Amino acid sequence: MLYGKDLRLRAIEREDIPRFLRWFNDPEVRQFLTIHEPLSRAKEERWFEEQLSRPNELHLAIEVWVGGEWVHIGNIGLHNINLKNRSAVLGIVIGEKDFWGKGYGREAIRVLLRYAFYELGLHRVELEVFAQNTRAIRCYEAVGFKRVGVRREAFFRDGAFQDLVLMDLLASEFAG
Ligand SMILES: CC(C)(COP(=O)(O)OP(=O)(O)OC[C@H]1O[C@@H](n2cnc3c(N)ncnc32)[C@H](O)[C@@H]1OP(=O)(O)O)[C@@H](O)C(=O)NCCC(=O)NCCS
Fold it and tell me: Strands, E, within 27-174: which ranges?
C-alpha cells in the first residue's frame, strides 16, 4: 500500500473488473480517455491477466476513506516503465464522478510520484492529455508537470481531430 493524506493506492484485483466496466463504458468518463470501443467483461479480464505478467506496467486502485470505509474511486498507473532511461508514462482516471474536483487526483498523483522518484529511482515521468481536458491539465500543473508540446490533431473523435498536450516532470522539479 502507498498512503497519502486521505487516500491510499493498492494493487488492482480481479474483483475490481465490474467497476472498471462501469467507469470505462460511461460516456462522461471516457470523453477524456483514448478508449473508443465499448468494453466487454471478457476484454477487461484478458487485459487484467496480461498486466500480471508485465513488469514494466504498474496499475493501482485509488481508495479514499469515506464514511468509515475505503472506497475505490479510480485507478492510477505507471506505464512503459523504462529502467535504462528511468522514465515512465503516468495515467489516471477517477471513475466515480462525484469525486472529481476535490483534490483527490492531485493527491493520488503525488503519492505515485513519490514512489516513482524515491523508490523506483525514476528520472522523468510524462503524460498526454486532451487539450480540452482543462480539469486534468490544472491538476497536473498543480503537481508540477510542465507542458512541453502539442501533438496536433493526433486523435480522431466525434468526427474531429483533437490536439493532445504532452506534459512531463523531472525528479529534480518534484516538490514531494
Ligand atoms: C483528471 C482527474 C484525474 C483530476 O482529478 P481531480 O481529483 O478531479 O482533480 P483535482 O481536484 O486534484 O484538481 C482539479 C483542478 O481542476 C479544477 N477544476 C475542477 N473542475 C473543473 C472544470 N470543470 N473545468 C476546469 N477545471 C476544473 C479544480 O479547481 C482544480 O484546479 P485548482 O486547484 O487550480 O482550482 C479526474 O478529474 C478524472 O479522472 N477525470 C476523468 C478522467 C480523466 O480526465 N483522466 C485524465 C486523462 S489524461
Answer: 58-66, 69-82, 87-94, 124-130, 146-157, 160-170
Which residue blocks in 119-161 are alpha helix, DSSP H? 134-143
Grid cell in block for residue 25: 463504458
Best residue among 135, 140, 163 to mutate for probing ligand 1, ranked by most atoms within 8 Å of CB: 135
- Which DSSP helix (H) or strand (E) runs through 9? strand 7-11
Lookup: cell for 34: 483514448
> Which amino acid residue places its CA nearest to atom 31 of ligand 1?
138
Chain segment 145-170, per-residue pLDDT in tens: 999 999 999 999 999 999 999 999 99
Q: What is the pTM of this model?
A: 0.97
Would you say the CB of residue 7 lies under 6 angstroms from ligand 1? no
C-alpha span between 89 and 72 (Å, rounded): 22
> Nearest residue CA, atom 48 of ligand 1?
129
Going from the N-terminus, what domains does the chain have, and what CATH number goes with each?
Answer: 2-126 (3.40.630.30)
Residue 173 has a pLDDT of: 97
Q: How many Cα atoms within 13 Å fall on the side-chain side of residue 116?
A: 36
